[in-house]
Amino acid sequence: MNLDKLDHRSIAVGDVVAERTFSLTRDSLVRYAGASGDFNPIHYRDDVATSVGLPGVLAHGMLTMGVAVQPVVDWLGTNGWVADYGVRFTRPVVVDPLEGASVTVVAKVGVVGEGTARIDLTVTYNNETVLGKAQVQVTFR
Amino acid sequence: MNLDKLDHRSIAVGDVVAERTFSLTRDSLVRYAGASGDFNPIHYRDDVATSVGLPGVLAHGMLTMGVAVQPVVDWLGTNGWVADYGVRFTRPVVVDPLEGASVTVVAKVGVVGEGTARIDLTVTYNNETVLGKAQVQVTFR
User: Fold this and answer.
1) Which helix (H) or strand (E) holds B24?
2) What would the CATH number be for the domain defined by A8-24+58-140?
3) Which of A36, A39, A44, A54 to mutate to test the interface with B (most CBs of B within 10 A)?
4) Which of B43, B62, B88 to mutate to test binding with chain A, by most A CBs within 10 Å of its CB?
5) How far is the C-alpha of B65 from the C-alpha of B67, rounded, in Å?
6) Coil, strand or helix: which one is A18?
7) What ipTM did this prediction achieve?
8) Alpha carbon separation from A28 to A18, B39, B72, B75, B103 (Å, rounded)
9) How many helices (H) and strands (E) does chain B have?
10) Strand residues in chain A grouped as ranges (E)
């Protein structure tokens, strides 16, 4: 853990540059539906989710993907930007109506380049990976 | 153009499986801020955007990325899911306070596998690419 070592000029492979646990709630999903236009009811209706055999209402994958990169964006601040981002959607995030879902992100340096770095995200929920091969290519100013 | 040829069992490389133009408005950005927790004011304040040298208020990259994949999700319906998704953020989308921003997505079959396909997105705004190397790996049921 090197959360105090935020200077991008001194990062090394394996350094943790950001770590955060965020809560996805049913509110978040409704807001994302409004933002994206994705009103698939499996993201806000328990009856529909159950009727199609799901364990419950699921977070939109793209919302999970979006919040997962936020700690890296915040770490970068004005020192750089996300140039490239990709993930594998390995498991759905079930959002409990009362508790929401607690998702943890650990952002670790995977590769250091010339003015660039690849940051690898470990994104878990209930101790299981929800986004696999989550890689953020960043460019520094 | 093969927009009527929606059956995933008969797709071939080069087929266009979906095409859509969507409008990002300032409303969309505010909703996405609320959904994601990303309240960077460059996404809703003209004064801040201008003060940091931007041509105007920008869409969150993750919102653009999210809406860009929606036509593929809709095309898939219950026939499959997005297993993997990655993009390069090549240009920002400036969202006019009155006009919003009109973003066009063309989703074309790039690779056909065994029960899978790679769908390549062309995502443009003002005739310029905003998401490069936008690749969606899909798995069919």
Assistant:
1) strand B16-24
2) 3.10.129.10
3) A36
4) B62
5) 6
6) strand
7) 0.90
8) 22, 14, 23, 25, 24
9) 3, 5
10) 16-24, 80-89, 101-112, 116-125, 128-140
Task: For chain B, positions 93-132, list CB contacts with chain A under 8 A.
Answer: none
Q: For A86, which of B34, B37, B86 is closest by C-beta distance?
A: B86
- Whole-prediction pTM: 0.92
Across the interface, whether the CB atoms of B66 and A67 are under 8 A apart is answered no
Which position has the token pair 């079930």? A94
Residues of B within 8 A of A21 (CB-CB) are none
Alpha carbon dihedral B49, A135, B15, B116, in 10-degree steps, equals -150
Superfamily of domain B8-25+59-140: Hotdog Thioesterase (3.10.129.10)
d(CA A84, CA A135) in angstroms, rounded, equals: 8
How far apart CA B102 and CA A95 sit, in angstroms, is 32
Mean pLDDT computed over every residue of chain A: 93
pLDDT in tens, B8-31: 778 999 999 999 999 999 999 999
User: Tokens 């209930």 map to which residue?
Assistant: A126
**What per-residue confidence (pLDDT) applies to A2?**
44
Interchain pair A83, B89: CB under 8 A: yes
Quickly list DSSP for B84-109: EEEEEE-S--B-BTTTBEEEEEEEEE
